[in-house]
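Kindly inspect what follows.
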Amino acid sequence: MSQQVIHPMVKLQRQVRSLVDGKLLKPTDSIWKIALLYGDDWSHLKQELFAFEFTMQDPVSDLLAVESWEEEE
């Protein structure tokens, strides 16, 4: 029996969606606001976001709009 590993960005996206649904973040907020919530984990997540060509000024809605986090080879 094999378990599917969830891409770290899928996990982040789900957590951010929960924050938006809970009104703690607005879809128009910049991605950098997420950094305040992630502390030590942020540097890795930030590098992942940069790898997917996000900037810290992009709105949270752009992050939530991604349908697939598959990395192109």
